[in-house]
Each structure stands twice: as structure tokens, then as C-alpha cells.
Amino acid sequence: MSRLPPITEAQFQAALQWFNRINEQPGQAEGAAFKRWLLADPAHRAAYEQAQVLWQKSAAPAARLADEEQDALQRYLDAMARPPAGGGWRRVAGLALAACLVLAVGVAGGWHPGYWLQDLQADYRSAGQIRQVTLADQSQVTLDAGSAIAVDFAQGERRVRLLHGAAFFEVTHTGEPFLVEAAGGEVRVLGTQFEVREQGEGAQVTVRSGRVGVSPAQGTVARELTANQQLTYRAGRVGDTLAVDSDNRLAWRQGWLNYYQVPLAQVIEDLGRYYPGRILLLDGDLGQRKVSGSFPVAEPLLALDSLGKVMGFSRQTVLGRLTLIR
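Predicted structure:
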């Protein structure tokens, strides 16, 4: 059995720095600089894998940390902000673990390690901003922040896989089938503009114009959707067809999030897609309060400040990356 190469403190700190950069911009995982660093020493790859494992194992402790008293969490953050005294490895490693714990608290609202692996399969991806893409058939795709797709045009079919996030499609008619795969289901285009959005273990489809056929699993009967209709499917089962204002629901393409009587927690989760760090809601009761309004995606913290004035909460941003709501 081969032994893992020894990892120095400096190498582990460099791995954490790379992990943090790829957290902000997943595309850097395929960049030349990161690949050169990985290949420069076998210990670099081992150090990076340890950083990934540390993140994964920290998810459960981080969730418990979020449930503790706010003062305890603040002391944790204060400890992180102090520079290590004397360069001691134990203190540095402890602060690194603290950083991973705090970052992992907000895992539902942003990037997580699985996306790095998914993004390796992607042909197009977006980080913290909306991105527009023109496919080979001249179809247009608008990727929401934190999204990725893989494209396969072959054997008389045009297939797109939504790897994570959300994508809005404006499909060009060529005579060849156009299909979007997401969460085990499939959307077959019948001439349309529509969105497919990841919803936990399922997906949500919203049609702006035209028609689509939605199959919640391979081999199941497709349900047809037309303009201003929406449905969600999960685990091979499809929900009810809802009538929606598609322009209002899809306003993120123009840089706005519109809401009517939705929980604050949902708004914070959505704003988190456009924030290059983590937004952590510390008050569960506050998160259930209803919100209505329109908010610009380009300024998520200003949107939170506006909401805070109305709803009576405050935010604190720590180290420029972690925003606490209470």
C-alpha cells in the first residue's frame, strides 16, 4: 500500500487558500495556475484532498454551531479574526477548522464541494453572477448565478444536462429534438422559452412561452406545460401544474428578485447565490416571517439592509465573507 506524502503546514495552508479561491470562482479548478500547483508536488494533491474532507466532515458540527447561542458563535468568529501567535501549528490548524466550520454553516445557500466535481463535467458555468451563452445551434441559455450545464449535440438530438442551479432556455427550431435533463427527469422542448431550476433533489420547470413536455423520470408519461405554467417534480413524481406570472418569476434574468408573501429564509437563500461568501440566518422564527418586494441581485447586502429596516433585524459581516442575520 502506497503511503501518503508528508504534508507541511505551509502546504496545507496553500491548499486551504486554493480551496477558498475555487469556492468563490469554481472555474479556477480548471485553470493553469491551480493545475501547476497540484503537479508541483504529490503532497499538494494530498493537502487539497484533506481540505475537501475537512469541509465535508465539518457540515454536521457547523449545523450544531449555528444552533448555539449567538455569543458563542461570535467568540468563534473573534478567534478567527486574531492572527496566530508565534506561528504555532496547533493554533493555525484550529483556526483553519474554525473557518471551515463557519463556511460550512451556510452550505445550503452557496457553493459546496460536490459542485467542484460537477463543474469538471460542465461545458458552461457561472459563479456569482448571471451568464448568457449561445449554443452551437444558436439557442440562447441564461445561467443563473451558481449554475452549470453540460451540452451534447449528437446523433440527431440536442441534449443539455443541468448539473446544478438554474437555466433559462430560448430554443432555436432546427427540426432536431431539444431535451433538458435535470434531477432524473427530462424536459422535451416543443418550441418555447422556459426555465429549469434545481430544487433540492428535484427540479422546477417554468414556461414563459410555447410548450414543453415534462417527464419526472425515464419512461414516465410526459405532462405538457404551456405559457405561464409551472410544476415541480421529485423522485419520479410530478406535482400540480400551477398558473404563474412567468415574467415576474423569471425577473432574475434582468437582475431582480420579485416576491409576494414568501418566507424571509427563502429570500436570504436566493440572495446568497449572488453573494461571494455565506449569509447565515441565526433566528429561525425571523426566517418564517413573510416578505413582499423586489430586490436587485447585484447588491445582496443592500437588499438585506433594506429588509432589515422594515423587519427590524440587523446584519453583521465578518472577514468580508460571512454575513450574519439576527
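Summary: The chain has three domains: 9-105, 123-249, 255-325.
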